[in-house]
Each structure stands twice: as structure tokens, then as C-alpha cells.
Amino acid sequence: MPSFTSFGTKKVNAPPEKPTKSRMTIILTGSTGSLGSYLLDTLVRSSKVERVICLNRSSDAEQRQWKSHRARGLSTELGPPKIEFLECDTTKDFLGLSELVYSSLTSEATHILHNAWPVDFNRAFTSFEPQIRGVKQLLDFATRCTYDVTFFFISSISVAARWGATPGSRERVPEKIIEDWRVASMGYGQSKLVSERLLAEASKTTGVKTAICRVGQVGGPVLHGQNGQWNKQEWLPSLIASSKHLKLLPSSLGPLETIDWIPVDLLAQVVVDLLPCQMELSQRRSKSQTSSNAVYHIVNPRTCSWHSLLPAIVKHLGGDVAIVEFTEWVTALQKNMSETPDYALNPAAKLFEFYSNLADKAVRFPKARSVTLETKQTVQYSPTLRALNKVSFEWMDLWMQQWAF
């Protein structure tokens, strides 16, 4: 993996100073997805943002954006002058844009918010090569910008999935670049870690300001009533849907028992809180420091237990659902898979190996818990994260209403 992390630019001792703007012009990738939609909605509502240029691969991105916002109860006023949609290919020179359009973007951008990334935990690292190439192209774009651009990269807790399993690692993952390649899990996490290191290297060699936002488990929205929902195909809603079918609900989640989830709409607000902070952070650092790179951790700083959320779930699943040990639930899931091979009724069957591994870890390492991220710096710069409450009965109750199992 180290061969992937060369930005290919000679180190500069003193990057030329570039002007700044009072209001931000954001280049946003991946705007049509779940987090992307909430990011765009939050950005356009901010008085600090002058314009958002959405770069997407599809030619019908604006139409897809409108449908996404309507389904989530977000603003459907998506036209100019504040929002512009451009079809692009970040793996190509000039991002797949005409040289004229590319040049125009370099003359007005103040921030790049790179959110586009396929979330697939089964893919090999090498299959993410186009995404890594896209990071390099966006970094090259940043070096060409007129203004003092900050490149924000939405990363993942997966870059540190094996933290604690390697010698010498601290209890919490620090808000710093990770030097040990071994802690990344799966191709997805490895590709994110390579990209993080690319940003750090670019900051050293070109002076471009970069910021890495490592995101933990993202929950459903909580600010828009029953509009929007946590994707039903993910592990938690699948577990709850199958629990209704099995009439059994696990009393514990093993290593995932400690809940530090963050609602997707509040996550978007945290990211927007952090966008203007890199300039201040850079100014605070010693002039002897060559890197203008920051690392933020976006997880809920206030935790609760899975057990505390069970009453909200049982309220919607009905009184005939029994609460059982996690291992018993996994055994029942496996038995039902052979009897009822119906993913609509039993969606957790598609993720059986994931739940089975969790239950196995719970038995072999009963005190083991998932990776914990340090949030000291992120809390300092984000009022939203600083004020965030732990996942509550009310939030879980709302998510159950949104799913309507």
C-alpha cells in the first residue's frame, strides 16, 4: 500500500500565500446519496456558504437530488445561483470536465468536500484504485486553485478497525494520521487509509490544507420527523426486521454493545461546523510544522448501551418478542434461514456471517468492545458535536417509526 501514497510532487519549503474569501464556495462530491443529501441541504442553509458545485458521475444528478431531498423532507429548491450540478469523472484529467469549466472552478473554489465513495465491505483493496486515483486528481485540482483551498475528506472508522490488536496501540484512536497499515480492515478501510495518507503527504509537499473526517456508525435522521430513514439494508435495521420475524431480540450486541452512533442529519451539521476551522487550526500551529493536515473524529462523544434501547424497539415489535442472549438469537437466525429462505421476512440472513462473528467474539472475549475514537479536538471545533446527546429512547422510537416494520 505505501506505493499508492506518493502524491508525486516535490516538497516545497514555503508555499506561496493565496487569498481567502469571506464566504465559502464548496466543491461537493457524492451529493445524491444519504449523507450527501444532508450535507447539501445543510450547506445551502448556511449563511457562510456562497455557492455549492455538486460533482456527480451521472447526467441526471439534479433530478436524482430532487427525488432524494423530497423523500427526506429536505428543501427541493436546488437551482442556481447557489447550487450547480456538473457531470464529472474524477479519475480523469480535469475531472472529466472541459478545460474551461475546470479553470472556472479553480478560480472560485474555497473548499473541496469529498464524500463520494462506494460503501462495500466485500470488495478487495485493488478494486478501489479508481477512487484513490480520484483523490489524487482532486488534490491536483486543489493545488491549482486561486484561493487557499481546504480539502475535506470523509473517511471512516474502518481505517482503525484493528486498533488495539497491534502492539503499542493506545486505548483510543488519536486524532492523528495513522502510521500503521495493519490497523485498517478490509479493502474499504484500507482504501480510506491510503487516501488519508495521500492527503497528509499532499499537505507536506504542496502546502494544501487538508482535513480528514473519520466517521463512525451513522444512524437515521432525527430532525425531520418521519421523513427519511436509516437504510433498511444495513446491519441494524436488518437485525430488527429479522427479530420481528423470529420473535426474538438479542439482549446484547457483543463488541458493539456501546452505542456511539450519530444521526445522519446531525453528522452533516458537524461537518459543516468544521469546514471553516482549518484556517484557524493552521494559524495556531507552529511555523516549524510543515503539514497543514487535521484529523477529526465524528462519533457521538456521549454513549449508551444497546440494552438501554431495547424498550423502544420492543414497543414497536410487540409484547410477544422475547429478549434472548445474542448467541441464541444467532442460532435461531441460522435455523430459520434453512426453513424460510425469504430475505424480505428475514433480511439478517444476508448478513449472517457478520452477526455470527459478533456473537463468537462476545463468547470468546466477553469484555471486548469496538474501537473507540478520541474526539477532543473535534468537540472543540464543532458546537453541534459538543452539544450532542446520547442515542435516546426518543431517537430509537423515531427510527422504528421511520422503518415501520
Automatic annotation (TrEMBL):
Cited Pfam families: NAD_binding_4
Region (Disordered): 1-22
InterPro entries listed in its UniProt record: Adenylate-forming_Reductase (IPR051414), FAR_NAD-bd (IPR013120), NAD(P)-bd_dom_sf (IPR036291)
Transmembrane portions of the chain: none
Domain Thioester reductase (TE): 28-270
Keyword Phosphoprotein: yes
Keywords recorded for this protein, A-Z: Phosphopantetheine, Phosphoprotein
SUPFAM superfamilies xrefs: NAD(P)-binding Rossmann-fold domains
Protein name (record): NAD(P)-binding protein
Lineage of the organism: Eukaryota, Fungi, Dikarya, Ascomycota, Pezizomycotina
